[in-house]
């Protein structure tokens, strides 16, 4: 039995999700999971650097610091499973995205978390740097999870959408006709803006269960201003990040709405996610939207998605056999298995790359 580890930290920069799995055809056996939260000083330094505040020294030190934490997350999940490290086939590490700029004249995407340290500290072969080959081939380098969704979650005769509510929200549409092309793209902000506003106004890292948002009301004028952002009406392939959707973006819009309460703004941000997701999903009769990511724990966001996405059915990926927190890390464990077997990991119809590519670089144990 081959066993794989997936390591993921997204744009929320909350911490590293680690999973140890094996793949038996389309069945995913989960052996252990572990989350290593980022200490608040690391989170703050990552947030600064991701907004272009910092030096090459900051970059180097954070690459090392996060690399050590990724290694620790991997070691912890191995220990929880009680497996000898030598029995693990490989680790797939997404790394921590600092900047994602796929659309300029010199497209790039920067993930840190030195994979050399992961391989060295765990003694397990590590695959990392998944995005840049797709970018080199003219793609967005994102999203990469649709290939995994297609492999494990598609069902002939059923129209399905996978919706991931991370810092940014992304969708994968798996058409009922499994030979039809898959679409997948980032719809826009999810937790990232809500987290940023919550931290700015309350000092708390996130709005637990959406309770604070629930105290506010949607301001339709502010929502209208937010919805005029060109990204939402752009055709895919497209991907985005906190380079665009950040506190500065929000504060510029708020200048025109100075009298809103903090809770009203939070509730409007939540509505923005619920509305932009619903608008961009290609709804069809009988479609089910399977949701994953940390946003599934925001009770109010889930309630509003039921409303905005109706009559499509909203369900959890748990119905497909994988807990919502573990879909993305599992995807990177699977992407590592693709790399090591010499198989492509990108879907060109999703990323816009000129063809399928074997993704990532290998750091041998
Ligand atoms: N109980 C909760 N209530 C509301 N939001 C939550 C809760 N738990 C997690 N979250 C949100 O989920 C985010 C983490 O989601 P995650 O899927 O890890 O995103 P990413 O892939 O960007 O790291 C947190 O930053 C927070 O906004
Ligand atoms: Mg996370």
Model description:
This protein is of the alpha/beta class. The chain has two domains: about 5-140 and about 325-365, ATPase, nucleotide binding domain (Nucleotidyltransferase, domain 5, 2-Layer Sandwich), CATH 3.30.420.40; about 145-320, ATPase, nucleotide binding domain (Nucleotidyltransferase, domain 5). Helices cover about 40% and strands about 20% of the residues. Strand 10, helix 11 (about 300-310) and strand 11 (about 315) form a beta-alpha-beta unit. Adenosine-5'-diphosphate (ADP) binds near residues 209, 210 and 328. Adenosine-5'-diphosphate binds near residues 9, 14 and 195. InterPro entries: Anhydro_N_Ac-Mur_kinase, ATPase_NBD. It catalyses: 1,6-anhydro-N-acetyl-beta-muramate + ATP + H2O = N-acetyl-D-muramate 6-phosphate + ADP + H(+). One of its GO terms (molecular function) is ATP binding.
């Amino acid at each position: 039995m081959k066993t794989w580890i997936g390591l993921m930290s997204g744009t929320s920069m909350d911490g590293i999700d680690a999973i140890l799995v094996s793949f038996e055809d389309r069945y995913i056996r989960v052996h252990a999971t572990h989350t290593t939260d980022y200490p608040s000083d690391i989170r703050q330094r990552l947030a600064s650097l991701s907004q272009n505040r910092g030096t090459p020294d900051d970059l180097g030190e954070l690459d090392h610091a996060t690399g050590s934490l990724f290694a620790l997350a991997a070691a912890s999940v191995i220990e929880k499973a009680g497996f000898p490290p030598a029995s693990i086939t490989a680790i797939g590490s997404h790394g921590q995205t600092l900047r994602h700029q796929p659309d300029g004249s010199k497209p790039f995407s920067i993930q840190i978390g030195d994979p050399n340290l992961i391989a060295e500290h765990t003694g397990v072969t590590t695959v990392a740097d998944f995005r840049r080959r797709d970018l080199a081939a003219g793609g967005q380098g994102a999203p990469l999870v649709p290939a995994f969704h297609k492999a494990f979650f598609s069902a002939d005769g059923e129209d399905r959408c996978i919706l991931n509510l991370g810092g940014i929200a992304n969708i994968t549409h798996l058409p009922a006709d499994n030979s039809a092309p898959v679409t997948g793209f980032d719809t826009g902000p999810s937790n990232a803006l809500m987290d940023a506003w919550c931290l700015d106004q309350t000092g708390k890292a996130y709005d637990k269960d959406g309770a604070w948002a629930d105290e506010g009301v949607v301001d339709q004028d502010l929502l209208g201003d937010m919805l005029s952002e060109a990204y939402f009406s752009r055709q895919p392939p497209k991907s985005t990040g906190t380079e665009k959707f950040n506190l500065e973006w929000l504060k510029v819009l708020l200048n025109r709405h100075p009298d809103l309460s903090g809770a009203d703004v939070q509730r409007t941000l939540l509505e923005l996610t619920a509305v932009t997701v619903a608008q961009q999903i290609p709804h069809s009769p009988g479609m089910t939207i399977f949701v994953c990511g940390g946003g599934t724990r925001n009770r109010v966001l889930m309630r509003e998605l039921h409303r905005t996405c109706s009559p499509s059915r909203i369900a959890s990926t748990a119905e497909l056999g994988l807990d919502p927190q573990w879909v993305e890390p599992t995807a990177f464990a699977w992407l590592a298995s693709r790399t090591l077997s010499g198989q492509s990991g990108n879907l060109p119809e999703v990323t816009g790359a000129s063809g399928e590519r074997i993704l990532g670089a290998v750091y041998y144990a």
